[in-house]
Amino acid sequence: MTCFIRSRLLRGVAAGITVLLATAATLSAHDFWLIPNAFTIAPGSVLEVRGQTSSRFPTSEVAVTPDRVADARIVDASGTTPLSDLSVSDQSLLIRQPVRTPGQKIVAVTTRPRSVRESAEGFRNYLVVEGAPEALERYQREGKLPVDSITRRYAKYAKTMVEVGRNGPRAYQQVVGHPLEFVPLSDPAALRAGDTLSVRLLFRGQPLAGIKVHASGVPAGPGVAPAAAAERAQEVTVDTDACGVARIPVGREGLWNVRTLHIEPAPAGSGADWDTHWVSFVFSAGASTRDGSASAAGPGPVPGTPVPGARSDSAEIADVVDRFHAGLVAADTAAVLRLLAPEVVVQESGGVETLSEYRSHHLPGDMAFARAVERDRSPIRVQVKGDVGWATSTSTTLGEYRGRTINSQGAELMVLRRDPEGWRIVAIHWSSRARRP
Q1: Which of 159, 163, 280, 395 gives the lowest tally of CB atoms within 10 Å of its CB?
Q2: CA separation for the pair 423, 219 (Å, rounded)
Q3: In 3-state terms, the chain is what percent helix, strand and coil (to 5)?
Q4: How many CB atoms sit inside 10 A of residue 108's CB?
Q5: What is the CATH number of the domain that holds 383?
Q6: Element (H, E) at 415
Q7: Cα separations (Å) of 37 from 127, 249, 295?
Q8: Total domain count for the chain?
């Protein structure tokens, strides 16, 4: 299969990164995102972008300091502009740059590599926790996983886009030359809820197939605090195809990020055993249009009003899960059963029940329990393969039930299948344990 890659490569950036071998302080297993103060600004304005470092989009727990930035630039249809006005603001890296010419601008930042020592077991755990199971499986199959402690080097590459003025030249397909990079195949500025964004993942300029790509969208706007938005994140995971293309269902309007990492053995004699490349791309669905009619200028990213109509599969699956739990809390047996397929299996409390068994046995107890105690659920993570999807989440439950104090940590897996009536639940698995004091 031939995968056609459009756009020019800005030479020298990737080469420059490979010689920046910084020794490390401490590993911070966090993503790095670029978030503009506004996605649409007027020519002559000052572009402001914040670099956020956190495991919860779009919050920031620690600032990347200017000395850790290896390369920062604006890329547009006419060329590149280095960015030098870098500072720290609260817990964020702050980038400021006057922009005078209209058009779509890519803001791209690379951090200097750092290194960390870790045990062989720690390295395996790192691959699992950071969402790179395909790397763990591949290197285990090839016999490359370490048996002794190793040095792992890591760097992060982040991009976002801002619209300057109206009807300017497009730049979204430009390749900026990061070692690992997402390149949109369609204009993110035109996205609305229910659309799909296709991005190609490039590693050293070549498509990278079979990689898990994670995306999440949060509500955004002047009245939405980052921490509150993070609690309401909608998560999806997809795989890149043979041409390195990931198709991201955009299930809501608001602020979105696409992210992944790629791990490979480091070159011999480079001072490290393994190299980890982190990459992210941030965009705003509904924040701007080709004619600039929906402005996002203001104190923060402003999403549009939700658009009625078709929604993505991931959004529909998440909605089914939410309605199932709402039915339990409301003790609405009919509403719960409508969401279950006839062949559903429910695994809980060490047993497996069919639909009829669950209806007569555990369902009444689940409803009573849901009404009696408070449950704080994490964002729902959804993956979709054709007409099958699965949703995972965790929860913390606190309260009193039948004279017992409840303080537990739970996990949930729901498998759904699409039929002519929509998505229905075909399997549920719940597990829980007492929380440690």
Answers
A1: 395
A2: 24
A3: 20, 45, 40
A4: 26
A5: 3.10.450.50
A6: strand 404-419
A7: 33, 24, 12
A8: 2
Looking at the structure, tell me whether residues 280 and 132 fall in a common domain: yes
Tracing tokens 């995971």 back to the chain, one arrives at 237
Side chain identity at 165, as an amino acid letter? G
Contact 189, 173 (CB under 8 A): no
Which residue segment(s) compose the domain that 227 sits in? 13-285
**pLDDT tens-digit profile, the chain (437 residues):** 556 554 433 333 333 333 322 222 233 347 999 999 999 999 999 999 999 998 889 999 899 999 999 999 999 999 999 999 999 999 999 999 999 999 999 999 999 999 999 898 888 887 777 766 677 888 888 888 888 899 999 999 999 999 999 878 999 999 999 999 999 998 898 888 888 999 999 999 999 999 999 999 998 765 555 666 666 677 899 999 999 999 999 988 899 999 999 999 999 999 999 999 999 999 998 743 333 333 333 333 333 323 333 356 788 898 899 889 988 988 888 889 999 999 999 998 788 999 999 998 889 989 988 888 877 878 888 998 888 999 999 888 888 877 888 888 889 999 999 887 789 999 999 998 887 66
- Copy the structure tokens of residue 297: 């200028």
User: In this structure, is residue 82 part of a structural domain?
Assistant: yes
281, 354: one domain: no
